[in-house]
Every structure is written in C-alpha cells, then in structure tokens.
Amino acid sequence: MANRASDWLSQAHQDLSLAAVSAEHGHHEWACFAAHQAVEKALKGLHLSLGQQAWGHGLGRLFRDLPEVAQERLNGGLPELVERLRILDALYIPTRYPDSLPDGAPSDHFGHLQSRDALSHARALVDAIAAQMA
Predict the structure, then answer these.
(1) Which residues, including other chains, have CB under 8 Å from residue 6's CB and lie 6 or more apart?
(2) pLDDT tens-digit profile of 13-69?
(3) Residues 42, 126 contacting (CB under 8 angstroms)
(4) Distances from the Cα of 121 to the Cαs of 38, 53, 87, 89, 99, in angstroms?
C-alpha cells in the first residue's frame, strides 16, 4: 500500500486556501473550521510519514499520539505549539453547530478577529509539520 502522507499534506494546504477565501468573503465560522481541518490533515500526514495511522479529530490528541521525538521536533520549531492546538481544537464544534452555542447561528459568533487568528495559528502549524515531513 502506498504511503499517502503527501496527499494529506497537500489537502491541508488546500484547506488553508479555503480558510483564507472563506474569511475574505465573511464566512468567518467556516474559515475557523477549515483552519482546524488543515492542521488535522497535516498531523495525519505526519503520522503516515512516520509509518503509523491516526484517527480522530482532536488536534491535541493527534499531537500527543506522535512519537516523542516528533513531538520534540515540532515543539522546538514552533513556539507555544500546544497552545495553538488548543485554540484550534476549541473551534471544531461551535463553528458548525448552532446548538453548541447559547443562541444564534455560528455565523453570529465568529468574526474577522477569530478567523485571522485561526488562520495565523494554522499556517504556522502546517508549515512546521511540513518542515518535519520534508
């Protein structure tokens, strides 16, 4: 079976592009979710590049399930990596589901500041992961 790590990383970059376009057009909730998805796919690609499968959507868990040496390399190359993962993990559900919020639709709760920050963290994370896979 072929190693599909590069396909996952390629899709992570596509998701980052979608996040930027979504933010540009005022779909900040979707930009935040796409930023999360980009990092999830990059992490899954890293797992595959290391010869292991990864399941689930939690970025923190995907990071903790990496071999210790890979965790150390990523941590060393990106300040506050775990905090960035936490910020993006918190966007996974409320950016899509109205019943995860006290009232209104997700589009009522996410604006340009959130999407800008999510994109910034996601770009930094995807870049660091890509560097590890190179």
Answers:
(1) 45, 133
(2) 999 999 999 999 999 999 999 999 999 999 999 999 999 999 999 999 999 999 999
(3) yes
(4) 11, 24, 8, 11, 26
Identify the CATH number of the domain defined by range 5-133.
Answer: 1.20.120.330
pLDDT range class, residue 3, cuts 50, 70, 90: confident
Cβ pair 118, 39 in contact under 8 A: no
Eight-class DSSP state of 115: H
Find the radius of gyration of the CA atoms of the chain: 15
- Region at 33 (left for phi over 0; alpha for psi -120 to 50; beta for the rest): alpha
Whole-model pTM?
0.96
Spell out the residues 6+ positions from residue 119 whose beta carbon is closer than 8 angstroms to its own.
16, 19, 20, 23, 31, 35
